[in-house]
Amino acid sequence: MRIQKNSMSLTEKNLREKDFHNELQSKPKGRFENIFYKAIANIWDDFYERLKKNARNSEVLDYGCGVGPSIIAVSNYQPKKIIGIDISEISIKKAKDKTKYLGSMVELQVDNCEKTSFENNRFDLVYGHGILHHLEFSKCLNEILRILKPGGSLIFVEPLGTNPIINFYRKLTPKSRSIDEHPFTDKDLTLLKNKYNDVEIKYYGLLTLIFFPFYSDPNKSKIFKMLKDADQILFKIKLFRYFAWSVLISAKK
Q1: Which of 36, 60, 214, 218 could form a disulfide with 224 if both were Cys (CB 3.0 to 4.6 A apart)?
Q2: Phi and psi angles of residue 232, each rounded to the nearest 5 degrees, phi first
Q3: SS3 for 47?
Q4: Number of domains into which the chain is organized
Q5: Pairing between strand 59-63 and 123-129?
Q6: For residues 122 and 113, is the Cβ–Cβ distance under 8 A?
Q7: Residue 252: strand, helix, or coil
Q8: Is the pLDDT of residue 218 over 50?
Q9: For the whole model, what pTM was predicted?
Q10: pLDDT tens digits along 1-45
Q11: Helices H, strands E: what count in the chain?
Q12: Beta bridge partners of 201
């Protein structure tokens, strides 16, 4: 495995995000909020299913790879190459330790997602989760468009900022997130649709979040299955989409 570190031009916001994630990855325990993520277990099933369909024989970029959990999964989908970038040096070091057994298939480097070091039309697939809302979204959309090959795909999981109850919780727990985070609104999704082709947006996390105390392992829970199916019925009505927690986004250049 090769690790590169590039000199980067960083904005004040970039530096704040870098410091936040270096500090977060230096802590021995994860955030308390991680207990809620079981409410969107089905988003990860769909996320990895879409990655599996797109990664085979592809040049793949893990955009904001963090400590590298998705790289391990995607390595099983027979890509040509996986490159992971992140602004946090600590995250990249942890990703190295976690993925070193994958050898030359994986290349990791410290880089700025808003302005990467890659040439035009480099990747068949760019993916990430929980990264775009930390950055200047319009810059990221333009950068991903630049580095994707014609017909290439992007696949991302991101939080929404439209549920007033979730937004209230965010205000009560400011130390759990960086001050520059911007969960997506309709304006962001419209911007995406204006720049990319074949945009698909799927919503997750309404009843599964409200009733999360009533199940433990979502993969084994009949209650969770019932709730996630009910969510997808509700999300056919636009009003209920405003109360979703997260979205799965896929699109093509």
Answers
A1: 218
A2: -65, -30
A3: helix
A4: 1
A5: parallel
A6: no
A7: strand
A8: yes
A9: 0.88
A10: 444 444 567 777 776 766 666 666 666 666 667 888 999 999 999
A11: 10, 8
A12: 249
Give the integer Cα–Cα distance in Å for 20 and 91: 11
The C-alpha atoms of residue 166 and residue 161 are separated, in whole angstroms, by 8
The string of DSSP codes covering 122-153 is -EEEEEEES-GGGS-HHHHHHHHHHHEEEEEE
The CA distance from 57 to 67, in Å, is 24
Q: Which residue has the tokens 């209230």?
A: 168
pLDDT score of 30: 64
Please give the Cα distance from 125 to 146 (Å, whole number). Answer: 12
Per-residue model confidence (pLDDT) at position 22:
63
In angstroms, how far is the first alpha carbon of the chain from the final one?
Answer: 29
CATH number of domain containing 107:
3.40.50.150
Cα separations in angstroms, 15 against 101, 114, 129: 31, 12, 20
Nearest CA among 71, 101, 105 for reference residue 85: 71
* CB of 80 closer than 8 Å to CB of 123: no
Name the nearest CA neighbour of 188 among 228, 132, 110: 132
Residue 41 lies in domain: 2-252
Task: Please state, in angstroms and as integers, the Cα–Cα distance from residue 106 to each residue in 76, 125, 164, following that order.
Answer: 12, 15, 40
| DSSP track, 51-98 | HHHHHTT-EEEEET-TT-HHHHHHHTT--SEEEEEES-HHHHHHHHHH
